[in-house]
Design a protein that fits this description.
By secondary structure, the protein is α/β, with parallel strands linked by helices. It is 47% helix and 15% strand. The chain folds into 4 domains: 118 residues, NusB-like (N-utilizing Substance Protein B Homolog, Chain A, Orthogonal Bundle), CATH 1.10.940; 36 residues, no CATH class; 52 residues, 2-Layer Sandwich (Alpha-Beta Plaits); 196 residues, Vaccinia Virus protein VP39 (Rossmann fold), CATH 3.40.50.150. The protein is globular, with a radius of gyration of 23 Å.
Amino acid sequence: MRLDVAFGRVAPTLAPRDRAFVHELVYGVARLRGRLDHLIERRAHGGLARLDPDVLEVLRLGAYQDLYMDGVPRYAAVSQSVAQARERAGKGAAGLVNAVLRGVADDGAGPELFPDFGSDPAGWLERWGSHPRWMVERWLRRWPPDDVRALVEIDNRRPPIGLVPLGVPVADAIAALRTAGIEAEPFQGDAGCLRLATGADPVVALGAVASVVQDPGAHLVTRYADPDPGSVVADLCAAPGGKALALAAHASYTLAADRSERRLRMVRENAMRIGRGLGLVVADATHPPVRGTDVVLVDVPCTGTGTLARHPDGRWRLGPGSVGEMAPIQRGILDGAAGAVRPGGLLVYSTCSLESEENEDQVSAFLERHPDFHLERTRAVPGEYLDEAGRLAVLPWRTGFDGAFAARLRRAA
């Protein structure tokens, strides 16, 4: 189960203070799991493979509290972890956890305990950088080591909360948020998105301004789509609805479709909150329920490697074959969506992945299969967010935003 889904189920049962503590703990462990495992392995005789999975999880939680949560006294982190280990795996596990955590605390978490970046960049990125080995080796084949280092450092930060005002001028939105006790400022780089101050409650922000919570990278996709005023628009992978609602500001009619009825309810709730009308339909994007549409957006399922700061558990859920597994799904959606576009209309393909097989390669293969489409440039977003072919390419280490990719595919008239 994804971490955000699991936390969402537990959060309503917790008091606000406890909710903040649990969020910091579980998300922090997900971000720094590779680093924590390296430190634990130094003190666990026989290595991590010999540890009971529940005991290893207790060790990660205890080590993170001791090393990275200043408000937790060392004795509390150790004693609580020992009690959890005893409850889950017995007296022997409790003694092991006590010894390992005390050893980890004595060692500290200094960079001198980890591989040297200059001589072993992959080892440093895997252990101190806390990313799977296959992933960093993949990225090192594509980008310089310093770029990959900057990428994993961004993935390991706490991402800011972005807010996109809908139908409200930015200055008015900032004023309304301030009245509600929330400070906000525009993100740098003309991203069309507001950064909420650290600690701001996004629920309060959404109540103060007609808006959606959205990272600048995701919002740039809708700006890149740039539908002509009065267009009929179909978002075929719409949940949770942020892109569909932003596109609806320019459209005469916007259809929001998703194969998940549960997730489509999220779109409906967001639309009702803002007071913006959408057509809603449960549908599979490989067999879209529309034809002859002006603009079709497919924000396809992907590995999400551009959003690992926001979804830190994603790096551990993925495996070396994950990119290949997603490609046929994306291809099927693209081919299905092509049939929904009218002659002369626009198909916008987007992902939150950094992987070329899901992005540039997928678009190139589509154009070979569909010669009646061509890649189209636009000036709707600043050139710094576009690649040499005019595709949207938002790279986290250059922008500080979540990663995003999109291509405008125009059908021949």
